[in-house]
Amino acid sequence: xxxxxxxxxxxxxxxxxxxxxxxxxxxxxxxxxxxxxxxxxxxxxxxxxxxxxxxxxxxxxxxxxxxxxxxxxxxxxxxxxxxxxxxxxxxxxxxxxxxxxxxxxxxxxxxxxxxxxxxxxxxxxxxxxxxxxxxxxxxxxxxxxxxxxxxxxxxxxxxxxxxxxxxxxxxxxxxxxxxxxxxxxxxxxxxxxxxxxxxxxxxxxxxxxxxxxxxxxxxxxxxxxxxxxxxx
Amino acid sequence: xxxxxxxxxxxxxxxxxxxxxxxxxxxxxxxxxxxxxxxxxxxxxxxxxxxxxxxxxxxxxxxxxxxxxxxxxxxxxxxxxxxxxxxxxxxxxxxxxxxxxxxxxxxxxxxxxxxxxxxxxxxxxxxxxxxxxxxxxxxxxxxxxxxxxxxxxxxxxxxxxxxxxxxxxxxxxxxxxxxxxxxxxxxxxxxxxxxxxxxxxxxxxxxxxxxxxxxxxxxxxxxxxxxxxxxxxxx
Lengths: 232, 235
Hints:
Chain A contains eight helices and no strands. Chain A is mainly α and 232 residues long. Chain B is mainly alpha-helical and 235 residues long. At the A-B interface, α2, α3 and α8 of A face α3, α4, α5, α9 and α10 of B.
């Protein structure tokens, strides 16, 4: 039994890895998407809107299966064409890139809203001081935008963390997979052990979501430095 | 691909009268769990916002646990683990209930959406302007009258945009039902994929159906907001 608990702990590490790497990818895609949607170039704006509308209208699980199997199919077609042995996509890479791509659409909306909430005068002042575009972004826009974006980012992170549970469906060995493996290998009578391992997995998720709440409330305080707390 | 569509268009949309599947099943799952989840969340949110302490913290714990864990695990617990317990299987009523995948799925979805809805309705009840309550009290309204006539009508309106989000999320979450063998859109897509080994058309059709459903729900909620939130300034 301790072996399976160890497996569960390995699972939680994979869950955290998948979650954080997907978060980073989604955040970068969100910045790019928000830039596209806010850009004055019509085609960029249209592409950005298409990305957010289409991705957010379809369940993440459906997109995961669609992308995972379609890309694997294409890879198979290519390897077959060149007479190479079958190349299986690494489940970690697949899970992370699919989650990152999907939640990038949600981040685009969060970041777009946050950028629009930064007063215009700030950007005008930056231009008046002769800051370069990069300086304006990194010193003026980004720090202020984060204050408005953090509640949304925190929400998205919670959703991503819980969506990592779905990655076991495309064969990645995270918490749920570990729980299921433990169930199959255990010698306890059916339901009770299943309940035990699944509850253990649920508890690990609960710990993760609770811990990340603390981290985000700290970050929110940090980025709100210099602003009064909202009256309650 | 044409063959796939020819063979599977009916299961994708509604199946047959004695075996409902696809779009009809997804819609049924969404509507039933949202309606039941909402009906349960309404009293829970009032209890959490205004009840005594012994009522508030169990409700808080309930929403905390069910919002903090993935729905997939909740579904696995309800569908596989509970039925595996001997005493459940041997109790006639319980055994029959948990044996049916559809019952388990609807139960898991209902409880999950109930937790999220309770939380968002609690927020809406707590955000009731003080003046509204004071005005109602000064007119002699109290207890259930105060809630049914003043606080809830105003809170439900305020919660409408957030609730529309929750319904869309629930619609998307129903795609998990296929892991419990319930024949929703994604299950039909999986079958079609297994049959023809054409992932893009099979899951692509599913994605299109889900997108159509989402957009329909969004436009319905927009109509509802126009009707019930007309007194608010448009943004």
